[in-house]
Amino acid sequence: MTHPDDDTLAAIALGDPAPSGAAEHARSCPQCAQTLAALRDTLTTLHAPAPELVAPPQSVWHAVESELDREADAAASAPASVATLPAAQPVAAQAATAPAPAGFTLVGTTTITYRDTQNVIHDATAKLYRKN
Ligand SMILES: [Zn+2]
After folding, report:
1. CB-based contacts of 8, cutoff 8 Å, min separation 6
2. Which of 2, 31, 106, 112 is the most buried (most CB within 10 A)?
3. CA of 79 to the centre of ligand 1 (A)
């Protein structure tokens, strides 16, 4: 039998019905057994209780503020560096060059990439401003 596809291995890991012979194959095939073990590890991690969230100590906020101050100072002293982001990052470049709202200075951007429930990949860019 050929190796079951990833969806079938995922179904086996979840305990869902799988085509006959697939589970037996996964038990006896080292490659599929390894994939299955990795999928089960991932499921275990996903089902683990979330750690209790605690507020960071004040020193973390001070460090963040001083880092933002440092980046704002660097941007103010070298404005050209903000406008020369690589072309491979159009979203970040757009965000970085968009004018800041009145009374605020853009001090940084961050982009996260995520998949939605339809497995479509999206980028979300957040802008970080400092009040003037
Ligand atoms: Zn296999």
Report:
1. 18, 19, 22
2. 106
3. 55
Report CA(29)–ligand 1 centroid distance (Å): 5
Read off the pTM: 0.39
User: Per residue in 11-60, pLDDT tens?
Assistant: 999 999 988 899 999 999 999 999 999 999 999 988 888 778 788 888 88
Q: What does the pLDDT look like over 94-131, one tens digit per residue?
A: 544 567 778 888 877 777 787 777 888 887 777 777 88
Assign 21 to helix, strand or coil.
coil
Q: Which domain range does residue 29 map to?
A: 6-47
* Total number of domains constituting the chain: 2
Residues 84 and 120 in one domain: yes
